[in-house]
Design brief:
With 259 residues, the chain is mainly beta. The chain has one domain: Porin. Strands 1-2-3-5-6-7-8-9-10-11-12-13 form a 12-stranded antiparallel beta barrel. It is globular and about 55 Å long.
């Protein structure tokens, strides 16, 4: 009798340990502009990056293009419903049509710090919600510390039948810190994702940036791309954003790794 009870207790303990070790489904912020509602599991890190991207600016003269390498979002799970994130561009090169202006390059120009808090739906349920304040600064490791802009996003997600999902992000994508709130921009985006075959998915997305202080009051985009998730801790993706009326095309190939 005692041996039986010990065996049952051992099985219960093993199940509890297994439950604790289970990670939630991989849900990175990339590759669309709509941010995920889910946080990184406690004690784990996630590295999301554009391996390479290219932006073509076709409205202003002279036309130009910028190639970016390793535009990354480094995330650390700090509590069950919270993570912290650091975003930057490792290296970028800008070239002008017909060499109208000298080419230029930049490395780790700015740092963006984000703090994501999941309100509900992090581990269960078809609906989830999160808030995410953030601040962008100069790279204070190599330059004078300067807080450039801040912002606040609200992220929402609803899982639909047949593996589809719809996501929304809205809020202040930026506001001036000095002078405080002298300039600001509102941002909203909706994405729809659906499975194509097994772990291959396709997404479509529309977004709007409303800025009363810019030459273009509403900057819209149509976005589309693919994600492939071969393992529970790795994702590959590729796609594009096209902005109108500024006639800017952004294309990318990237990946996500969770450790």
């Amino acid at each position: 009798m005692i041996a039986q009870e010990q065996e049952e207790n051992k099985k219960g303990s093993d199940k509890e340990k297994k439950k604790k070790k289970e990670l939630r489904e991989l849900s990175p912020d990339r590759p669309h502009q709509t941010e995920s509602t889910h946080t990184v599991d406690v004690g784990h890190i996630m590295f999301e990056t554009d391996l390479i991207n290219n932006t073509f600016y076709n409205k202003d003269m002279p036309h130009s293009s910028t190639t970016g390498l390793f535009f990354f979002n480094f995330k650390v799970g700090i509590q069950k419903r919270m993570d912290i994130e650091v975003i930057s561009t490792a290296l970028s090169f800008t070239r002008y049509e017909n060499a109208a202006l000298p080419a230029s390059h930049d490395a780790f120009a700015d740092l963006t710090f984000r703090y994501k808090v999941n309100i509900f739906g992090n581990d269960s349920g078809k609906t989830s919600l999160a808030i995410m304040p953030f601040i962008t600064t100069s790279n204070f490791f190599v330059d004078k510390p300067v807080a450039r802009t801040g912002g606040l996003f609200i992220n929402a997600e609803r899982q639909l039948p047949r593996g589809c999902e719809i996501e929304y992000t809205g809020g202040l994508t930026s506001f001036a810190l000095d002078p405080f709130f002298k300039q600001y921009e509102w941002f909203s985006t909706v994405s729809f994702t659906y499975p194509l075959y097994k772990s291959l998915h396709h997404f479509v997305e529309i977004s709007d940036r409303l800025n009363e202080f810019s030459n273009v009051r509403n900057n819209y985009s149509f976005d589309s791309g693919f994600t492939f998730t071969p393992t529970k801790n790795n994702q590959f993706d590729m796609g594009f954003y096209y902005f109108v009326p500024v006639k800017t095309l952004y294309i990318f190939v990237g990946t996500t790794i969770r450790i």
